[in-house]
Specification:
With 167 residues, the chain is mainly α. It has six helices and no strands.
Length: 167
Amino acid sequence: MRLAKLFPAPAFAVLISPRLAVAQSVFSVRVGEVLVWSEYLGMVAIGWGVGVAVWLVSGQPAITCLFVDLPRAWKLRREHVLTSSLPIYKYLLGGALLLVLGAILVDQLWGFWTSAFTVGLLAGVIVGAGHSVVNIQKLGGPVDFLEANQRYLNEDEIPLFTEYDGA
């Protein structure tokens, strides 16, 4: 589907045509080429935004589950800090589910408009992944992980949580 079907192209052409007429008289520019290239750039920008959103919705949480929280749960289970294997299964299944849902989403979006949208989609996913790699250290520390799995803690090994009366 072309972008021209979604937006009223005549209104855009009326707004931009006086400036293009001046540019065409000064430079050797064809109005049609400028409109086609602006359409491609718009599709790349939209694909870029969708790619970043897809990564932040499914890719980053999946990678966090599989490569940050799952190893942490495995290590704490082996050290007998966690009394159950449920956190391990939770992060394994959660990460796998997010990866599958992200793959389905990308499959549905692939080829949505043109190759320009696809290029933008890939670029957005790559930029989102780069953002996640840079900020991976900021994702929940050890205390956040233990708070999320508080009911599975072996209190003899780690007496971290006590009641706080607020006084």
